Task: structure prediction
Amino acid sequence: MLFQSDEGKEPLTVEIHTEVDIVEARQKGRMFSNCLGFSTLDQARIITTISELSRNIYKYATTGKIIMEIIEKQPEIGLKIIAVDKGPGIKNVPKALESGYTTSGGLGVGLSGVKKLMDEFTISSQEDYGVNIQVIKWKKKK
Result:
């Protein structure tokens, strides 16, 4: 299986510095979710989430990273995605999670959309110290 070392399952990290890195994160997310056997629909949700989170890093913090790792909660398996940056942080997290809210003139579906696409969502932000967002998509049993 891909993404395993001798010690076990290793997280996959993509540093985000340029728009090309966003594409790389999406591609690795597609490969990772496919290898884990997620449905096509869930793969699309995962890729969209990675795209939104990495784009936010690039746009608001300039640099950061996306970390993908396999998690298990027997009998389920899931994909945890962590987006970390050391940017300016989010001043008002509850407001940022409202559907339609935007600071950039966009559609305002970023974080609220990510929250809807994934099964679990946690966010921590400290102004001037960055943002840490963790999401999980659980593989549905057949």
